[in-house]
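Repro case for the chain-ordering regression, as requested:
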Amino acid sequence: METVSHFNMGTNPSLVRQGRWRDEHPACDGPQQLAVSGGVHGYNKNTDPFANTGALPKQAVQKKFWNKCQHGTWFFLPWHRMYLGFFEQIVRAAVVKLGGPADWTLPYWNYSDSSNANARTLPPAFREQRLPDSSPNPLFEIQGVNILRAPGINAGNAALIPPDDVRLSGCLAETFFSPDTDITVGDLGLGGPATGPNHDAQVFGQKSVENAPHNAIHVDVGGEWTQGAETLRGWMINPDTAALDPIFWLHHANIDRLWSVWNGISASNADPTGAVNVGGRKISWATSVKFAFNNAAGGAVTMTPSQVIDTKTGPFAYDYDVTSSPLAAHAKAAVAASERRTMRPQPRSEMVGASSRKLTLTGSAQTTTFTIQEPSGPAKARGKAAKAPLLGKTYLHIENVVSKESHTTYEVYVNLPEEPDAAAYQEHYAGAMHLFGVRHASRRSEQHAGNGLNFPLDITELAEALRAKNAWDDKYVRVTFVPRGPGGEANQAIPEHDPIKIGRVSLYRA
Ligand SMILES: [Cu+2]
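-- result from build under test --
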């Protein structure tokens, strides 16, 4: 099969027209068909905007194919690559049937493109309410239902996606795909923690591409806002409705591209090959788990990650027009390929302090302070043993973050002064909590107890920088949570009856 290239929608106007696949694709025309492809990612009748339009697939079909998206796991990237690949096949078949190009591909949305001043505005093809012939734009409205997005997003306001949310210096600088153990506190690689199949996220590694830009874009584009007494949330903010918004596919095509970019940075940026012991079960990333999909012919197929590692020779046969890393550190010809290091050995870290009370966030800044002890377990032992030196890593762990529905993004600061100025906010910033999936993570299911999301933040460099200016104390740490409003402003009210709760804040050493 010939390889087809994916293009950046933002810089290729001719593809914008092709991006309007729903014009030409009868299979995507009705709400049922839409729900069919969206339901594969996630489905809940209570949040289905088309709940009362037409019948859904039979229960047995739903059980086999629906609610399968993989989050908070090293299967995040390969599962979404398969999902994209089959969706593209389905749309392409319809495009070809209607006389369109046989090499039709999904464009991608490169919101991180620093050479494009409009990179962070939603591409115009998704914002125009009407097509040139004045019929409704199916990328803006589906079957008379407006696609719900943060109001400013549809207005083309780039400020709703802060630069920090699309920065690639975290994920592309990672030097391994996943840890070689099932740790959940620490560096979790580009690809996320080693787990079994995992539909609802529990942990987001700070530098995983899933955390940012992926989760950040979902929350920013979907958005959360009040209208009268009601709080509204856009489709992209909820895994059960996200794939109903056509921008979902361009967003995920870009995430998929970033995986290829990362692979190309160095020969040691390879995908996992070995198996990891996950809770007593040996799981090989490449071959242990088969995921079920429907192909363009409507047939049921299964696939393992090993089949989608190489995009060009894989079943979907594609590449991207841009796969070079935009990071300055990667600009030199090639980073030396040392040994293959797909799953870097990661030590178990040791907790050295934790907050004693739950935190309830209702829209204003909240601070918790707790004491830190010297490491006494594995981290101390490692420091003494020459063969396993202390890594000198410090992690701030935000644990059991739950809410009913609220998704407000909170920024996390370490030892922020009582009356911070703009410089202090910059100097004390540890990271942000993007709460994509919090609704699922907070509800008990067959697979998990509903304990919420967890965010291990690597604050090693931050702690050293603070120490250098006498703002770090080895005995105490102060952690401040500041809500981020839709335009990046400091405050946003979240309803008293639905606060975001944090079970515990802790500090780990490795
Ligand atoms: Cu997604």
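Ordering looks correct now. DSSP finds twelve helices and 19 strands in the chain.
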